[in-house]
Amino acid sequence: MGHPLATTVAQGHAFKNIIDGKQVEAISGKRMDVVCPSDGLPFGSIAASNADDVDAAVKAACFAFEDGDWSAMSAVDRGRVLLKLADLINQNAAELSALESRDTGKPIKQGIADIAGCARYFEFYGGAADKIHGDTIPIPGDFVALTLREPHGVVAGIIPWNYPAQILGRVAGAGLAMGNALILKPAEDACLSVLRIAELALEAGLPGGAFNVVTGTGMDAGAPLSAHASVDFVTFTGSPPTGTAIQQAAAVNNRGVTMELGGKSPQIVFADADLDAALPVIVNAIIQNGGQTCSAGSRVLIEASIYDKFSHMLAEKFSALVAGPHDADLDLGALISKKQHGLVQGFIDQAQSDGIELLAQGSIAGNAPEGGYYCAPALFGNVPAHSDLAQKEVFGPVLSAFPFKDEAEAITLANDTEFGLVAGIWTKDGARQMRMAKRVRAGQVYVNAYGAGGGIELPFGGFKKSGHGREKGFDGLFHMSTTKTIVFNHA
Ligand code: NAI
Ligand code: MG
């Protein structure tokens, strides 16, 4: 059952920005409501920040990076602060999970998993902070050449609402471990766990200014942050069009970016696969977080000889799925917002009016509040290759099934979208596992497994429109830093 805190946490609380180690109101004094997706009702508020607040946060980060206590801290001490933060997140896990669930509408069990994941990022990167080192390079003549791995400086992280705590973990974990100073702009739709974890970071001993959080809309707070001339690097997770806008803004200052822009990830199921093992993983990969997961497995490609059998197995599972309030802890919660609900429902309605076969649909719990943004999960079959359902990121609990006749067709279908984030391959044939894994265009490939959103230790990021740069694992540390080469003449 859900945690009892999940219905009451943060009731009526006015959350503030965190700038230079202090909680501050937006300079304009403006606030905006925080809404719980489970009932559509406001239960607190956040600062509605603009360019002035962003500027104050960037100034604090610049000072922390160049002159403040953060700039003087050794890698081993940075690591210790992050490990302490991991402990504090775990100690406060009940409150943080309840907050995350109420803010996003996700079932409390998912909130618990997300907070544990967030703590694990700080544990991983805290342990890694003093284990990054450069090279010595042989060059002709009386020289010694070496490299240092240096932080970018001031890093802006613009993050989405689907996994606020987890994405904070991967951005701040890697960014702080390398010694950058951060400004996070979480999504206006869900940012409470981010604010609370930034407070815990101060308690863990992080110097003020090293980690600032500015809340507000993308236009008012995100756009000025990505365009700020004193920001050295921008990392973004969210939609492709916003990613384009952020890259254009950062390009004016010629700054580097990491872009994680979602996907249309395939699960490829061959006739020889262990179908009973594959089934729950494939279902979970699309309903986890209501399908609002960049790495959701939103397409299932099924070998023709088992298409009827396996789509029937999927349909049985889908019919039994129930969406309901976060504190009821069912298969899935509400979608994040009325807007997102409209988008997802639009895909379902369009597919039905286009005559695409609806194989099964789950339900919405009878006691789900009227004003919540619930969507019954849907499974569509024989989806036409060029339909929206086959090509576009729905970002909701909608799975599209496609038959394929052989490996070649499976690869063509798998790679036939603008995206390339994750893929799952289900087969017992070892040579085919490797052939398929090499030919599929995706940043992560799972064989007889699938990791929607998982893998703190694993490099993660996209091909094609899914973005560029990598987060998570040690790759995350390299992208949060840059190489300085030093050459000594000892002739
Ligand atoms: P979005 O990409 O617009 O928002 C993500 C973040 O960017 C938020 O913090 C937002 O405030 C900020 N932002 C928005 N416009 C900005 C701008 N011009 N400059 C700087 N920052 C800006 O995503 P949105 O509107 O919340 O959702 C729309 C669609 O995006 C979803 O339906 C889904 O398909 C996709 N999406 C994908 C995510 C992923 O993890 N890959 C996460 C969230 C959304
Ligand atoms: Mg909310």
Structural features, described:
This protein has 491 residues and is of the alpha/beta class. It has two domains: 4-261 and 468-485, Aldehyde Dehydrogenase, Chain A, domain 1 (3-Layer(aba) Sandwich), CATH 3.40.605; 266-459, Aldehyde Dehydrogenase, Chain A, domain 2 (3-Layer(aba) Sandwich), CATH 3.40.309. 40% of the residues lie in helices and 21% in strands. It is built from 16 helices and 23 strands. The protein has helices at 51-66, 69-72, 75-91, 93-104, 108-128, 164-177, 192-203, 218-227, 240-252, 275-287, 304-319, 338-353, 388-391, 407-415, 430-439, 473-479; strands at 13-14, 17-19, 22-24, 31-36, 41-47, 136-137, 143-151, 154-158, 181-185, 211-213, 233-237, 256-260, 266-269, 299-303, 322-323, 357-361, 363-364, 378-381, 398-404, 422-426, 444-447, 467-468, 481-489. It has a seven-stranded mixed beta sheet, sandwiched between helices. Helix 3 (75-91) packs across helix 7 (192-203), helix 4 crosses helix 5 (108-128) and helix 8 (218-227) crosses helix 9. The termini are far apart. The site of magnesium ion has 5 residues, from strand 4.
Largest sheet: 7 strands, mixed
Shape verdict: globular
The CATH architecture of the largest domain would be: 3-Layer(aba) Sandwich
Give the full name of the CATH homologous superfamily of the largest domain.
Answer: Aldehyde Dehydrogenase, Chain A, domain 1
Count up the helices.
Answer: 16
Number of domains: 2
Widest β-sheet, arrangement of strands: 16-18-19-14-13-20-21
What's the β-strand tally?
23
Contiguous uncertain segments of 5+ residues: none
Which percent band covers the strand fraction?
A: 15-25%
Q: Please name the CATH topology of the largest domain.
A: Aldehyde Dehydrogenase, Chain A, domain 1
